[in-house]
Each structure stands twice: as structure tokens, then as C-alpha cells.
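Hi R.,

Here's the chain you asked about this morning:
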Amino acid sequence: MESVQPPAGSQVSRVPAQRTPPEQLAPPAPAPAPVRPRRRLRTVLGIVAGVLALLCGTGAVAGFILYDRATAPDRSAPDVVVVNYLQAMLVARDDNKAALFTCGSSIPSMDGLRDQIASRERELSVSFAINIEDVNVAKIDSKHAAVTAVIRRSATLDGVQQSLTDNWRFELREQDGWRVCSGQPL
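And here is the predicted structure, written out as C-alpha cells:
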């Protein structure tokens, strides 16, 4: 086969083909914009997580407040304080709880009564039921009050129900709530 020469003046020559400069090329077709992944699920999960965090935080605060109110001793009124103090001192025999209702130290006359009750229970081999009755408040002023109460000790001895009552007078003072400062038998 014989090589054919291109006619003179034609654009085909023996020069190797050259590439067209980029500025002379037609602009490339724009690539399609990338499709954004759907973020609806992520948004919904974010909102749900935020609401749950808010609910948990609110629940924790509410729980703390309710716990604090439920466990705080009720020192709102002199008669309530005397009853709570006597329950803690004579029924539960819990010095720590009783101290929540006092002016800061134990009340020696009440310590003596509690020791006397415990001694009689051991001596007679019985357990006394303690009732606080006829609690009356005589307010002296906005910072001081006097409360009288009857303390009844009951037990069954040899099949017979027996009881003994003692009348007491308690002096209270308002110190971040009412507190028992002293107590004496009448």
C-alpha cells in the first residue's frame, strides 16, 4: 500500500495531532449537584434527644424538691413540733431525729423519762405503748410558745391493761421553724 499524501493546502499534515487549548474547548457540562443525604431522621432524633434531656433534667429537679420536702422535719407549728419530738424521743427512741426538733441540745428531763420507761420495760418484761394526748398551745409571742401535753404509757400486765399518764409543759422558740428548748413535768 502506498501512502497517500494529503493535498496541498489541506489542514491535514504530517504534524502529529495537537490538542486544542482548553480556552477554545466548549465548556464541560456541569456535573450534577451532589444529592444531599436526607437528614430528616437525624433532625428528628436530635429533637427527641433534646426533649428527653429536658424532661430528665426537669424530673431530677422536681424529684430533688419533692424529696427535700418529704424528708424535711415539719416545724411549722409548736404543737406539731412537740408531737414529732415526743414521737422521735419516746416511741422511735431516735436521738438524731429528736435533735431535729430541739434548740440544739438534748432535754435532760425527757432523757430521764425515756430512761425510766426503758428501765420499767426491762424490769416488767413488757413493751409500753406511748400516746401523746391533749396537746394545747399557749403562744407567748411570735418567737416563743408554751405547749402542754399528756404522755400516756400503756401496757398489759398479767392480762390487765394498765396505763399511767404524765402532764408535761414544753417551752418552744422560733428558730428557722419551731423548736423545743425545754420540757418539765407538771
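One quick note: Helices lie at 40-71, 78-91, 95-99, 108-124.

Cheers,
M.
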